[in-house]
Write a structure and sequence with these properties.
Oligomer: heterodimer
Number of domains of chain B: 2
Radius of gyration of chain B: 19 Å
Structural class of chain A: alpha+beta
Number of strands of chain A: 6
CATH class of chain A: Mainly Alpha
Number of helices of chain A: 3
CATH topology of the largest domain in chain B: Phosphoenolpyruvate Carboxykinase, domain 3
CATH architecture of chain A: Orthogonal Bundle
Number of helices of chain B: 5
Distance between the termini of chain A: 33 Å
Helix content of chain A: 25-40%
Strand order of the largest sheet of chain B: 3-1-2-4-8-7-6-5-16
Shape of chain B: globular
Distance between the termini of chain B: 65 Å
Largest interface: A-B, 17 and 16 residues
CATH superfamily of chain A: Coenzyme PQQ synthesis protein D (PqqD)
CATH class of the largest domain in chain B: Alpha Beta
Radius of gyration of chain A: 13 Å
CATH topology of chain A: Arc Repressor Mutant, subunit A
Number of strands of chain B: 17
Structural class of chain B: alpha+beta
Largest sheet of chain A: 3 strands, antiparallel
CATH architecture of the largest domain in chain B: Alpha-Beta Complex
């Protein structure tokens, strides 16, 4: 199975408040509130760490879940976040974008 | 041979920002003076100047979407009933519309929302009123009770608007200004301002009560009620962060109210 790399879309506005991560699309002002798993993916999306490592280090340690199942769910979630242009995903490491939002 | 056309100007000052509207149609000029009564200033100073070109009447399209885009510093605002362009650097713009007050109203709202976004302020779907020297905002979608709470306001309150509040950042706090943008009440707000003491999220119920709202929910509700149409990443970022800033400085609560005047005993 190929690796998947994630990075934050620098064109969205993002802010955490009381543990809730809120994201607003810079394109159409749609507001998203991320759940706990999506927040983990957002925070770990540095373009250099592959998704399986993020799942292993951040998700499997947080939730009681089988690693293979967790990876499958995380990949589905990452693709959904990418479809909303919150994350960018690639099978290659992604150079870090400048001008990331807070 | 050229024909010189007489043009008249009406300067409309909302939220402390004067906007000049130039027209060659005396009837439209009078329409503006009537529509914005209390907001028309005799001063010749204006931060933006618009030339209005009136077009033949068109059938209104209630489903027409607003589009607000920025290309190379020039804003374009379009809806079925108007087309406007604005160049902030030149402080001038043009509006093509039919002779009605609704189109220019929409253009002015959009222009003010764009200017405010850069300054940490915003327009908000909310009623607002001044009591004891402080402004109170009552936010909610259509039917939430904005007009009802405005109608119930006691004589010692000054109504700023029953529909769209004008919020400007000033120092460490925020100030609400009156607006001519009306809802069902069809009554222009007073052209005055006051520091904002509280924002209430409206809900109708069987009793009057005020409950705290968690910051996350307060921010989401505020964002949901902002008037903002621009397809512009920089301004979206600005207005998003302004909402968080506002919630960190102004108390936000849920006001559940039964529609009678006693609700105002909780406010002030």
């Amino acid at each position: 199975m190929s690796k998947l790399y994630l990075t934050r879309n620098p064109k969205v506005a993002a802010r955490s408040l009381d543990g809730e991560m809120m994201i607003m699309s810079g394109k159409d002002s749609t507001l998203f509130t991320l759940n706990k798993t999506a927040t983990i993916l957002w925070q770990a999306a540095d373009g250099a760490t592959p998704l399986d490592e993020i799942v292993d280090r951040k998700i499997c340690t947080e939730f009681e879940v089988e690693p293979a199942e967790a990876l499958k769910d995380a990949e589905t979630l990452a693709r959904e976040l990418a479809s909303h242009e919150i994350l960018q995903i690639s099978e290659q490491p992604i150079p870090r974008n400048s001008g990331e939002s807070r | 041979m050229t024909t010189e056309v007489d043009r008249s100007s009406v300067v409309i000052e909302i939220g402390g920002m004067p906007v000049r509207v130039n027209t060659s149609d005396p009837a439209f000029s009078r329409l503006l003076e009537d529509r914005y009564c209390g907001y028309v200033t005799s001063s010749d100073e204006a931060e933006i100047s618009f030339d209005v070109e009136l077009t033949a009447p068109v059938a209104p399209d209630p489903d027409a979407d607003v589009r607000v885009t920025n290309v190379n510093g020039r804003w374009t605002l379009t809806r079925g009933d108007f087309h406007a362009e604005w160049e902030p650097a030149a402080r001038t713009g043009r509006i093509r519309q039919t002779a009605n007050p609704y189109s220019i109203d929409a253009v002015l709202r959009i222009i003010h929302s764009l200017v405010l976004a850069r300054q940490g302020g915003f327009l908000l779907h909310s009623a607002s009123a001044i009591r004891n020297g402080k402004a109170f905002l009552f936010a909610g979608v259509s039917e939430a009770g904005k007009t009802t709470i405005s109608r119930l306001a006691p004589p010692d309150t000054t109504l700023l608007t029953d529909e769209i509040s004008y919020v400007r950042k000033q120092g460490d706090g925020y100030v609400a200004f009156g607006t001519p943008f009306t809802g069902e009440l069809a009554k222009l707000g007073e052209n005055v301002s006051a520091p904002i003491k509280a924002l209430y999220l409206l809900a109708k119920g069987t009793e009057n009560r005020i409950e705290p709202v968690a910051p996350g929910e307060a921010t989401r509700s505020l964002l949901a009620n902002l008037l903002f149409f621009a397809e512009d990443e920089e301004l979206v970022q600005a207005i998003f962060h302004s909402a968080f800033e506002f919630v960190s400085r102004v108390p936000v609560s849920r006001l559940t109210f039964f529609p009678d005047a006693r609700v105002w005993e909780l406010i002030g």
